[in-house]
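FORM 12-B: Structure-to-Sequence Request
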């Protein structure tokens, strides 16, 4: 279950242009005193969680499956490069037989005991056209398990981003609409107040069209194309249809979330045992016991009264 800290060999596999952008980003992090990032990856089954972990490391560090994987446990992959440690925790899909798998969530939570999560990557697909109640339930279950504060340390990752949008929509508009739909589901599923979660309108989207750029509360969106058929630019970097080299962009977004001033999530015993909500209930236990005692006494008294009346019903 533990992790072995290894040299980040896959780093050398990135094209030089990507390597130098990453070196710069990690150097800035180090300047801020950060030499370790722990990233948690969650989402439905088959959306591309493991593939994204592989893309980020540039190494085949975990298994991917084209078809449903079973019995898979969380796994933490750690790589070290020039004194900087990147930990990424890949997890099993959160849906089992059409329902949210609380068992998977529990397994994840236990795995995370005593770990500090700097960023959550919530992964879904870009090439999906609907969000449904199940999506909302998954978000709700994550919030219940880890507290809704986890969303202030999260990034929405949309995979399969090399697509040709339907219905004559431009790529940017399609991405914006899909992102808005998933973000709205996150806001509703996590029961976050709208004003704490401002969504910008499509027209506000900047040059990197998929970053939601309002004040401090919103969840950024990163686009990912894990396929080996992903287009490349003249520097051999994997690019999206909008020309963006997505690996350095995603790392940049991850670092922005890690350093957004919100508290990282420490998964302690209390969180794992779900005692926070239970503790709140515990103060009512003496009250409930007291009411129960009074009720029993009252019933006993009524029975005695009945008997004293001579059992007129018999
Ligand atoms: N075209 C394309 N295929 C992808 C992408 N990401 C993942 N896939 C494929 O989708 C399938 C599932 O990918 P995984 O990475 O195993 O998905 P997962 O979310 O880890 O799945 P579970 O661990 O079963 O929950 C594999 O066949 C991948 O090759 C992507 O960005 N583009
Ligand atoms: Mg997987």
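FORM 12-B RESPONSE
SEQUENCE OUT:
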């Amino acid at each position: 279950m533990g992790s072995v800290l290894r040299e980040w060999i896959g780093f050398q596999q990135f094209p030089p242009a990507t390597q130098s952008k990453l070196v710069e980003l990690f150097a800035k992090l180090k300047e801020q005193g950060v030499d370790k990032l722990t990233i948690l990856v969650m989402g439905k089954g088959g959306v591309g969680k493991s593939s994204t972990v592989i893309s980020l490391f540039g190494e085949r560090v975990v298994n991917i499956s084209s078809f449903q994987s079973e019995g898979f446990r969380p796994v933490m992959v750690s790589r070290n490069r020039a004194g900087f440690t990147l930990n990424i925790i890949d997890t099993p899909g959160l849906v089992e037989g059409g329902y949210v798998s609380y068992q998977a969530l529990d397994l994840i939570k236990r795995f995370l005991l005593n770990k500090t999560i700097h960023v959550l990557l919530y992964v879904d697909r870009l090439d999906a056209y609907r969000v449904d109640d199940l999506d909302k339930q998954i978000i709700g279950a994550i919030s219940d398990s880890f507290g809704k504060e986890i969303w202030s340390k999260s990034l929405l990752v949309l995979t399969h981003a090399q697509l040709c949008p339907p219905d004559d929509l431009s790529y940017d508009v399609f991405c914006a609409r899909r992102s808005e739909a998933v973000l709205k589901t996150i806001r509703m599923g996590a029961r976050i107040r709208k004003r704490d979660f401002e969504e910008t309108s499509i027209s506000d989207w900047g040059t990197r069209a998929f970053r939601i750029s309002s004040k401090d509360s919103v969840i950024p969106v990163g686009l990912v194309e894990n396929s080996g058929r992903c287009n490349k630019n003249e520097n051999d970097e994997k690019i999206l249809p909008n020309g963006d080299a997505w690996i350095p962009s995603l790392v940049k977004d991850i670092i922005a979330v890690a350093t957004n001033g919100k508290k990282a999530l420490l998964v302690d015993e209390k969180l794992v045992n779900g005692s926070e909500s239970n503790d709140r209930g515990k103060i009512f236990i003496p009250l409930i016991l007291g009411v129960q005692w009074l009720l029993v006494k009252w019933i006993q008294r009524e029975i005695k009264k009945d008997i004293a009346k001579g059992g007129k019903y018999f």
